């Protein structure tokens, strides 16, 4: 145990994953614990699972927790891919009471992944505007300017050609529609082009499960902005959650 260690917990659609992170190096310092996400993933059920992850680590210190939702001042506001009872939930109070402690920080999953990538991964030391996109059940976004996060951007819900973007370009959409990598890359390129005309980023970082096999799709993408894959892959959420639990660094 060290002053810079925090427990980071990433709440996803299929699993709730947690580990102790050395927030000065981004390294995971314990065995990762993963528990299936409860269904339905109501706030109470997720709080019980989060508590089980905390107990498995026998962790008593501050905890950072991600949610696939807009989170402002501890309140969850949206539920595109989680249980519809989340909006309006005071997540900090819910988790704080369930865990019996005050040092609980809750943030959006993509913002957490971005914090980790910009500090320790593919966005380290990159000046200007960096846009991280997580490609999973939905599309998450995190935007940085000179390393500073602009929270809650929700670019997965940009309207592209009359559609909520994530319903056509997420990993879930690719599987559902059985799209070839070529077809998916075409749609994703269109999305990147719309986004780059709006925010003119200097770098796109693409994360999520697909970032493990970039050879299949990265060369097919067409955009004027430089594109790289995320480095921390599925650990980014855990690391970013832990970073948010360091006082003063919450988005
Ligand atoms: C949600 C975002 C989330 C993203 C990735 C979207 O549907 O609106 O808040 O970051 O999915 O989980």
Describe the protein in words.
The protein is of the alpha/beta class and 251 residues long. The protein folds into 2 domains: 5-111 and 235-247, 2-Layer Sandwich (Nucleotidyltransferase, domain 5); 125-230, 2-Layer Sandwich (Nucleotidyltransferase, domain 5). The protein has 7 helices and 15 strands. Strands 1, 2, 3, 4, 5 and 8 form a 6-stranded mixed β-sheet that branches. A 5-stranded mixed β-sheet has the order 11-10-9-14-15, with helices on one face. A two-stranded antiparallel ribbon has the order 6-7. α1 (43-56) packs across α2 and α3 (109-120) packs across α7. The longest helix has 19 residues, at 181-199. The two termini are 25 Å apart.
Write the layout of secondary structure elements.
Layout: E1 5-11, E2 15-22, E3 27-28, E4 33-36, H1 43-56, E5 63-67, E6 71-72, E7 75-76, H2 91-99, E8 104-108, H3 109-120, E9 129-135, E10 139-145, E11 148-150, E12 159-160, E13 163-164, H4 166-169, H5 171-176, H6 181-199, E14 203-207, E15 226-229, H7 236-244
The structure holds beta-D-glucopyranose.
């Amino acid at each position: 145990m060290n002053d810079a260690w925090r427990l980071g917990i990433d709440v996803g659609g299929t699993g709730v994953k947690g580990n102790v992170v050395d927030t000065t190096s981004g390294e995971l310092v314990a065995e990762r614990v993963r528990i299936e996400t409860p269904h339905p993933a109501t706030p109470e059920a997720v709080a019980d699972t989060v508590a089980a992850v905390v107990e498995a680590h026998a962790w008593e210190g501050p905890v950072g927790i991600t949610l696939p939702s807009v989170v402002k001042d501890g309140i969850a506001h949206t539920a595109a891919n989680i249980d519809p009872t989340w909006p309006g939930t005071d997540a900090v109070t819910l988790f704080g009471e369930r865990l019996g402690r005050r040092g609980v920080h809750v943030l959006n999953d993509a913002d957490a992944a971005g914090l980790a990538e910009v500090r320790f991964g593919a966005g380290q030391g990159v000046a200007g505007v960096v846009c991280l996109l997580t490609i999973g059940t939905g599309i998450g976004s995190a935007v940085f300017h000179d390393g500073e996060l602009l929270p809650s951007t929700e670019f997965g819900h940009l309207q592209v050609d009359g559609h909520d973007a994530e319903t056509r370009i997420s990993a879930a959409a690719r599987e559902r529609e059985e799209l070839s990598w070529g077809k998916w890359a075409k749609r994703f390129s269109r999305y990147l082009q719309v986004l780059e005309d709006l925010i003119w980023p200097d770098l796109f970082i693409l994360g999520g499960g697909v970032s493990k096999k970039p050879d299949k799709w990265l060369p097919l993408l067409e955009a004027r902005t430089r594109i790289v894959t995320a480095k921390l892959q599925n650990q980014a959420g855990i690391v970013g959650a832990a970073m948010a639990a360091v006082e003063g660094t919450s988005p």
